């Protein structure tokens, strides 16, 4: 056998081994992720009932339900996405179609900032300086700032994946830049933008640290009346129950965790559906 054939056979063998190792690691990691989800989801599932979803907590969190926390999480997620998605998409388009290197660098740096830092920033700017106090609006604006770099960076990458020849062909036909962007490029990546939006929703609904500082309260005897009212949320409710109530309220913490996981699974499932439709 010639040296070239030996070298080629050795290379093919190495590639097969690498594929086997990577595939095994993928299966192991997938099984571990599923186990983590099951261990967090199954223990709380047995506490689900109509009362659990529709009532306020009672008797120092040892009875009742989590309706205010569910409503608070839904409100915060909706308001923060209403603010963050349009701004993030617009920023991603601008970064893609205009050469703004320094802003792109700043957005990349901001996407790596820990969420507690955003919480401290939101506490200082929205709650204290702008006098929003602990409220839905202050929490939603803080979460919007937190996911804005993530959305804009993702939209930037999606826009960059569009072949350059499409832009050049449109310009050659006399189209203006705004027509190329909004009539041709953005519609072609619509599903990718929706996927990014739902992935951001999954991150927002599970955040805890920024909300402890800007929006969430330990317990609220009434539902929020407007955007300047404080709220209970699912992740902060789990945190408070674990930190302050111990074993007496453990069942409620487990039930709340399972509901939170259900929300996250639903949101990411919708994002995955848009991603598959894109393909």
UniProtKB/TrEMBL annotation:
Gene3D superfamilies: MetI-like. The keyword Transport applies. The chain crosses the membrane at residues 20-45, 65-93, 105-131, 137-158, 257-274. Its main location: membrane. Keywords: Cell membrane, Membrane, Transmembrane, Transmembrane helix, Transport. InterPro entries: MetI-like, MetI-like_sf, Phosphate_PstA. This is Phosphate transport system permease protein PstA. The keyword Transport applies. Belongs to the binding-protein-dependent transport system permease family. CysTW subfamily. It is a multi-pass membrane protein. Signal peptide: none annotated.
